[in-house]
């Protein structure tokens, strides 16, 4: 078989398995076997470009070629629901509905914590899939939805046009597997299944989506040309008959008591579910009743979303240990009797500082109530003194650093206690890890374990030593400290790449007390290079936006140290950029006096990149919306900040408008 015939044969095999998988929801070979076929075809086409063809699977979706997410206008507005938080709110909703329509029935459903999509079918075949987006426009993720097995690619009833709404999610089990795989590979870290599902669905390579095993629950029928329905529950049953995976365990209720019983039952079950939920939805069942009830300017009057308070459980504090952070801050950490909370095991929780421990009267041995802030971060809510054992022990943050035995000092005007030593190994290790983190120099694959291994072997003692690791490449490969040859080379390449970062990332990475990313950007917007910053006076610094005495003094103190000057010289010799790319261009203050809030996922810009552009042009970025907000830059799944902006009349812009403002 010649090369041309070999390529055509491979194309035929890939097309066949694409059709089986995408069109018929069947698999005859494993993902690995498919990927090997695809990879072999891709390699041959690259080696023999004269045989390339536009209809090759490598050039089309289904063969999973990378692509741009295209904008698509919605046929039905994608609206949010009114959030409620109490039993009284639910009963008031039922009362208002009952005053407007006769003998209403309600459907109670779980509110799946995922990413909303609209599926479009023409004559029974899936033709499009769109994300929620903003206003009346979403983004097509059709090619990625094709690889989600639970989405039917064809349905038995061939309506001219059908649109359904669903929630794409990732199960807790799949999330754990993906995170474990990403941790091993040093990839991006996600805190929740919802965030990972959202990031996955917007991937430009559907092979990634296929590997991550996303799922969907369909919860609403939006358009059904050629078929009429009386109730929402009727549509759900019909959708099930068509092969859709609908919201499980929904119930039809007639009274407020029945509704509340269902809402409470879902709340009790949520920690044992195999997927995440962020509430319960109560909807009027009859579709004519919905039309009669109508909408306010923002939400429908026929539905509400009940949001549960954080799940709380009791457990026992076995011990309290102290961690030393990169700034020398001593943080007490409660070691807990393990307990399942919001779906995961919790065995630790931060106690912040001595004032926190004293105010909540926390002792070792106490029974405490814990919850997850935002269903993510474990926190101690309160102690239960009446359950305190006789051998409980009061805890005081030590006066000697547990790592280096240096004296500890409490902040003069704060609650934190810090190590007073300059050579504390814990501070150095966490400082170097922070320097390499995404918030600072963004050296991919250089996490805490790599830092600790290299420090213990004597290869790095400070951040500048990172840029001299290439001198020890062969030793590192031979010893296997950070992996084999490929791992070492990947890390060294990432380190080299970081040399070109803008100066504000370097300043952030220094970990100067009271100086974060925004402060670093102010410095590099006003000074041309690191030497100018180092030589800046108090009077110059205090004039910068948002610089007070505390920040100015911290900057002066850091750059007055001989060790800082030695560090900078070593970084320069290694070729690390110390020039400000922002101040190198003419300063453009078009956003001076303007405050932006960024919310949701932008199509192309990372949030950090958008922040940098706003600040480069003299604007400020805030984390919350208020009457003083000038613009809300909104992307996919913008959420409550967008709703608040609409209520306050704040101007909302998308990425395209933002780019036009900069141009």
Automatic annotation (TrEMBL):
Its cofactor is Mg(2+); Mn(2+). Keywords: DNA damage, DNA repair, DNA replication, Ligase, Magnesium, Manganese, Metal-binding, NAD, Zinc. Coiled coil: none annotated. Zn(2+) binds at residues 401, 404, 419, 424. Residues 586-663 form the BRCT domain. GO terms for molecular function: DNA ligase (NAD+) activity; metal ion binding. This is DNA ligase. The lineage of its organism: Bacteria, Bacillati, Bacillota, Bacilli, Bacillales. The gene is ligA.
